[in-house]
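F.,

This is the one I mentioned.
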């Protein structure tokens, strides 16, 4: 990546810049495996005194998976060059450990960059980024081909443009910062709002320290007077926040999709188990996304420095990341509760079905036993070598053996009859086991004539 020119020493975070640099950061849809990295981010950028923090937290940093230099004539911008001339550009694709990708275009300009022309250039590369081509092809298609990705790749919803003014643009901003606030507001508003709004009043989130000027909106940050290593660490802050915002948006969409899946009826226990397993796995992924795709990048733990912390806090508030994170966490928590309730209901239904099957089996065993006992008794009777069994009479001779049949079947017929009576009169059954109580008092009725 192009580091730019500076008159700073490594001990200072401030510097002057001869030429303007703009870094365009685009979130990308889909996920890219960080296992195919092309080096480390700490080696790709010079972070100066911030390097010790980044080396200790290297596992959290985005991983470069594609990096190459691009000739200025290979880039075709929407609407032409807008009066500006590129001196060089770099293409960088980074992905977080969770696979969330960001495309970074590092553009250095040759010659002067008036704020009006730069505002037009920023607007075109943001709002018409689909027409931004490299060697005649859209940038996401080039990235997909370079990385041999199996699925499609496209721009995400989020864009942020970092402007590091140089030359006369930088000198004008610093001069206005030390003398006239309205004169400073005009070019800053023009760039931050990309020439689309009047920008009445001071620019949003302005920090004027005399030797540096920092202001930003939702989509554009103007950082004037910083040394290259400070520019690089500010770029890293935007990388993390942009990725976190994309993860939050994806998480919100997935949460609604899981809510709709939860409303789907499951006609069979097997399908109900599959749905609960699918929802539980989805919730686990959402929780991992919030933890390692959002929370890891929205505080200053990675680079605990005042320069980055103030910018990170201000940009995070502008984007509403913390509020969105809290809302998304509550949504996932409630979704987890709903899935838990559905799982409990499913377990109760399965237990009830098992109890029903056990009762049916018990009834079948009892019926089979009931049916088998009388024939068994009769067979035992006819198998006895006694005077009551006559060899010249069939066992089906009811006239001869009627008493044997009556003795064998009458107890079981009575048992079945009593059971059916109790089943048909369930209200009376508890009284059979209830302890005796006092007799109820008679209810007085109307007196008839002549009865005392």
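My design for it:
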């Amino acid at each position: 990546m192009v580091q730019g020119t500076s008159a700073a020493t490594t001990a200072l975070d401030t510097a002057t810049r001869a030429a303007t640099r703009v870094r365009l950061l685009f979130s990308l849809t889909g996920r890219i495996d960080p296992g195919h990295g092309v080096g480390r981010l700490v080696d790709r950028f010079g972070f100066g005194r911030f390097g010790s923090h980044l080396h200790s937290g290297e596992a959290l940093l985005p991983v470069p998976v594609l990096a190459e230099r691009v000739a200025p004539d290979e880039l075709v911008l929407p609407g032409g060059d807008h009066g500006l001339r590129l001196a060089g550009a770099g293409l960088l694709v980074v992905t977080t450990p969770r696979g969330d990708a960001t495309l970074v275009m590092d553009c250095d300009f040759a010659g002067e960059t008036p704020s009006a022309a730069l505002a037009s250039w920023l607007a075109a590369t943001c709002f018409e980024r689909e027409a931004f081509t490299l060697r005649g092809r859209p940038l996401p298609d080039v990235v997909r081909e370079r990385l041999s990705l199996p699925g499609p790749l496209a721009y995400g919803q989020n864009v942020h443009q970092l402007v590091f003014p140089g030359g006369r643009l930088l000198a004008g901003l610093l001069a206005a910062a030390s003398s006239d606030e309205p004169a400073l507001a005009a070019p800053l508003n023009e760039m931050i709002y990309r020439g689309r709004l009047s920008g009445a009043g001071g620019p949003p989130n302005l920090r004027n320290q005399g030797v540096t000027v920092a202001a930003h909106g939702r989509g554009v940050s103007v950082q004037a007077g910083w040394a290259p290593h400070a520019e690089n660490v500010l770029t890293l802050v935007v990388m993390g926040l942009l990725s976190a915002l994309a993860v939050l948006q994806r998480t919100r969409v997935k949460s609604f999709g899981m809510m709709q899946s939860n409303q789907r009826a499951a006609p069979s226990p097997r399908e109900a188990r599959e749905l609960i397993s699918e929802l539980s796995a989805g919730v686990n992924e959402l929780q991992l996304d919030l933890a390692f795709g959002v929370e890891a990048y929205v505080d200053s733990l990675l680079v605990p420095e005042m320069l980055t912390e103030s910018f990170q806090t201000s940009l995070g508030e502008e984007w509403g990341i913390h509020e969105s994170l809290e809302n998304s966490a509550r949504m996932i928590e409630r979704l987890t509760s709903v899935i838990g309730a559905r799982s409990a209901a499913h377990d109760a239904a399965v237990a009830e079905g098992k109890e029903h099957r056990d009762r049916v089996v018990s009834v079948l065993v009892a019926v089979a036993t009931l049916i088998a006992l009388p024939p068994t008794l009769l067979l035992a009777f006819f198998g006895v070598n006694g005077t009551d069994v006559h060899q010249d009479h069939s066992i089906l001779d009811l006239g001869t053996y009627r008493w044997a049949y009556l003795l064998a079947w009458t107890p079981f017929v009575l048992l079945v009859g009593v059971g059916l009576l109790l089943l048909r009169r369930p209200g009376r059954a508890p009284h059979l086991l209830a302890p005796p109580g006092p007799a109820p008092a008679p209810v007085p009725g109307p007196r008839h004539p002549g009865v005392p």
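The mean pLDDT is 82.

Talk soon.
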